[in-house]
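Appendix B, Record 12. Input sequence as logged:
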Amino acid sequence: MKKMNDYKFWFVVGSQFLYGPEVLETVASRAQEMADTLNKSGKLPCEIVYKVTAKTPEEITNVVKEANYDDSCAGIITWMHTFSPSKMWLNGLKLLQKPYCHLATQYNKSIPNKEIDMDFMNLNQAAHGDREHGFIAARLRIPRKIIAGYWKDAKVQKRLGDWMRVCVGVAFSKELKVMRFDDNMRNVAVTEGDKVGVQEVLGWQVNTWPVGQLVEYIEDVSEDEVDEKIKEYKKAYKFNTKNMDAVRYQAKEEIAIKRMLDEEGCMAFTNTFEDLYGMEQLPGLASQRLMEQGYGYGGEGDWKVSAMTAIIKAMSEGQSGGSSFMEDYTYELDEKGQFSLGAHMLEVCPSIASKQPQIEVHPLGIGGKSDPARLVFEGRAGKAIVVTLVGMGGRLRMIVQDIEAVKPIYSMPNLPVARVMWKAMPDLATGVECWIMAGGAHHTTLTYDVSAEQMHDFARIMGIEFVHIDKDTTPEKLEKELFCNDLAYKLKAN
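Logged structural output:
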């Protein structure tokens, strides 16, 4: 899979021949200057490439066709320096298959009081041109990101950089392969889904590999390979166990799963404790380690959360907050302070740890296998979101909730798993009611790096429903929103 800096974004500027060659030269020069300045800002994760000042329908159509078939192009950014008649854009935009951002800005920050005249007005018509350009995209109902403001402002640059990360996630999603070891947990509804439908919409290729094949790979791992992996563990984590046999087996599992994933080009995987045939332990430390390396994971066969975790990790490459597979476990319902406690049997990514994790070995009490090694730690405090994706019968719904992670209010010395405690927005009871009303799953991806706005951008580009539970959400408002969404998607289907 490509890395963040492998992608580029094409800057396409709109104008026309009405203004004469000198104006067009100025427009092209300024467009190149803007691209160069933005690239040097340090706010963008990917390079902007100025492609053309488009003056004809043919130029626009050609650059769109070129973008569609360039795998390194993750999206296009348009800006109307002057007035670009939007019928010129119609055919090109109808063909566009890449994410699209309309940057509504202007070259100059302020109006030059004494210097402004009609020559200045004719050259600097962004307010005029952007509205014309916005109309045709609205008329064609093209999903797009609109970012308005001065192009040198840090806020504008950050929003543009955040959108770029979303587009990289979109490109990643369209190539994503998920490896499932057996099926999802028996009789569970929310982890089921239409794999063909999801591949059609999001691009994911979700397939199953036999657990027996994984066992063969585990048995082929050499002791020398395990020794090298143990050295990595000792550099990264504290050891709070003397059961090195359990730790070494997890090292074998990590090496074997990674080998299978890489051979098949998969960046996400699932397993289930209901099928560990031939294995000595449920992968705990192994799954945590693989997530830390950027692979997605889903417990109990949950391929949707596995894929979303991989995508969010791809979107947040180079950031340090961390993202992890997560599950809501239990609540603190005291009126003085109400919190959710998130954890899982074993598999929480150490990228979200507040301090150095430690390796421990404890009985699992489920799955019927030997005591597995795992990393135990507390998650860091800070603002974050939890994301889930559910199938609603004919469509996908992404649900995002704003949360604020806190240092756990209890030490929980006998809880032998990684854990995160958080305040749910707008408050615990309302948040739970809204999450349940929307059909939110018990599995999520928790991320400190990716925002609700970015996930909304992802959903918009992919054409899936988006539900956001934030500080202003009420059950009454959400019920109306969900009702309207149901009607809209039924009409769309017909």
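DSSP finds 15 helices and 19 strands in the chain.
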